[in-house]
Design goal:
The complex is a heterodimer of chains A (347) and B (133). With 347 residues, chain A is an alpha+beta fold. Chain A has nine helices and 15 strands. The longest helix of chain A has 22 residues. Chain B is of the alpha+beta class and 133 residues long. Chain B has two domains: 37 residues; 77 residues, Sandwich (mini-chromosome maintenance (MCM) complex, domain 2). Classes of the chains: A alpha+beta (347), B alpha+beta (133). Chains A and B meet through helix 1, strand 1, strand 2, strand 8 and strand 10 of A and helix 1, strand 7 and strand 8 of B. Strand 8 of chain A pairs parallel with strand 8 of chain B.
Chain lengths: 347, 133
């Protein structure tokens, strides 16, 4: 009889553990925050406890907020020297002492300038701010929306040389030698900041996080069950659920698209990615998605590829290691770099 | 044949014990099942966030209209047939209204001027994406 009770207990225990064993040890959590880099930030992560996730997410948002404020070109913050402060210095002789984070990001931007043959140019602020103002006004009063006069753009373009930006890495100062030159880091700052968050998460040993900061996606490790994170590429035409679903593991995905930010003038849309050669929104492409580990590089590349022909862009991507890209043209054609397909989820 | 008698008598007791054993197992199974049922994760939901803070959580299954009114800002959502669509907004660019209806896990509609975002959260299924760009 004792044997029987023992047998019964053992069976019951086995049965219970089998049933409850289906529940994963790690739980999935999500958090959102608005306003960082003027967009929405989403964090998804697997943790054993909500407490731990909340701790991590608070720190992530704190890091992003710090970078957002330092890289903000539209507003100043109390007791903080940021890019807006630098832009407001109207004397080409004056060097401003800044946080090392600004020096590092601007140095990274100069490298990106070289890599992209000048298509990512943080000194293009004078031109981009004109577009920014017309876009804002045109969105506020759609009946009054106008395009910037080409004369103004051409004049502003005389003050966009990257040589205007002088960085002193040792003394942590920044100087803009042309008083009419303005910094605009819209093509790079968000991705750069996301990458710094990824570094932080890696440094504290996190392996199950996914960040999506206004379209800059960065996977740190995998999902809780060890499978890759899945990211869907939106179809701008709305015909398909997704253009592609991509598997991400320790990888960034950045998309530049003409449908992300735009305004209407006389019924025609004008998006926010300005071609340095025409000083107008670039034409020919609807979206470019870049896969690479460094989110800052991905951000810079997606913007530059958006202003290049598919042919030239493909040549650039193929020349870089660990970078893949996907193009969607205005006529609806799709192009891939050679290694892109290995990340696509096959149905 | 003679030998069969004893096991039959003994087998009667064995049968009774086995019956108790099986019934007890079934009772436990039902209890565990009920527990799993009551503590299961909530179903597919639509989360509405205003300035990053949770404004409301709605079932993706129930048909309804949601008005998001903060000060002078207004956004109107419709949840129908498992999809969410922004049908009206007081914002200046209207990009959120132009956005197609969403239904997949991780999909979002964002209204930047009004700081409203709508996120679909589903209990994970195979093939569901974790985020969209």
């Amino acid at each position: 009889m004792k044997k029987r009770i023992l047998c019964f207990l053992l069976s019951a225990i086995t049965l219970c553990s089998l049933l409850t064993g289906c529940q994963p040890r790690l739980k999935k959590f999500s958090a959102y925050e608005f306003g960082l880099f003027d967009t929405i930030g989403a964090i998804t992560g697997y943790e054993e406890s909500e407490e731990e996730f909340n701790k991590v997410k608070t720190e992530i948002f704190n890091i992003l907020r710090e970078y957002h404020q330092l890289f903000d070109i539209y507003a100043v913050y109390p007791e903080k020297t940021n890019l807006c402060t630098i832009n407001n210095v109207k004397n080409g002789e004056v060097a401003t002492t800044v946080d090392k984070k600004i020096v590092d990001m601007l140095s990274f931007s100069k490298d990106a300038y070289t890599l992209t043959n000048g298509r990512v140019n943080v000194c293009m602020g004078s031109v981009l701010s004109i577009w920014h103002d017309y876009r804002e006004e045109g969105s506020d009063e759609p009946w009054n929306a106008k395009l910037p006069p080409m004369d103004d753009l051409v004049k502003a373009n005389e003050h966009t040389s990257i040589e205007n930006l002088v960085i002193d890495k040792e003394n942590l100062t920044v100087k803009i030698t042309d008083p009419n030159c303005r910094l605009d880091v819209g093509a790079i700052a968000k991705g750069y900041a996301v990458e710094r968050v990824a570094e932080y998460l890696e440094s504290i040993g996190k392996t199950n996080y996914l960040l999506n900061i206004g379209g800059n996606v960065r996977a740190i490790g995998t999902k809780g069950d060890g499978t890759p994170w899945l990211a869907g590429l939106e179809d701008p035409s709305g015909e398909k659920d997704f253009l592609d679903i991509l598997e991400l593991k320790d990888l960034s995905l950045v998309t530049s698209g003409s449908y992300q930010r735009y305004y209407y003038v006389d019924g025609k849309t004008y998006h926010h990615i300005i071609d340095k050669d025409t000083l107008m929104p670039s034409t020919g492409l609807t979206a470019v998605s870049v896969l690479t580990k460094d989110s800052g590089l991905g951000d810079a590349l997606s913007t530059s590829l958006f202003c290049m022909s598919v042919e030239d862009g493909l040549a650039l991507v193929e020349s870089l290691e660990g970078v893949e890209a996907r193009w969607l043209t205005e006529s609806g054609e799709t192009f891939y770099s050679t290694g892109f397909s290995q990340y696509i989820v096959k149905e | 044949m003679e030998k069969n008698n004893a096991p039959t008598v003994f087998g009667g007791r064995k049968l009774k014990n086995d019956l108790i054993f099986i019934i007890a197992l079934i009772v436990i199974l039902v209890c565990v099942g009920l527990g799993v049922y009551f503590f299961r994760k909530p179903g597919d939901t639509v989360k509405v966030l205003v300035d990053g803070k949770l404004y409301g959580t709605y079932s993706l299954k129930e048909e309804r209209e949601v008005e998001i009114k903060i000060g002078d800002n207004l956004n109107i959502l419709v949840i129908k047939d498992g999809t969410v669509d922004m049908i009206n907004a007081s914002c200046r660019d209207g990009i959120c209204v132009k956005h197609r209806p969403i239904s997949k896990n991780g999909e979002t509609i964002t209204c930047l001027p009004n700081k409203v975002s709508v996120v679909v959260e589903k209990t994970s299924e195979k093939g569901d994406v974790d985020t969209t760009v």
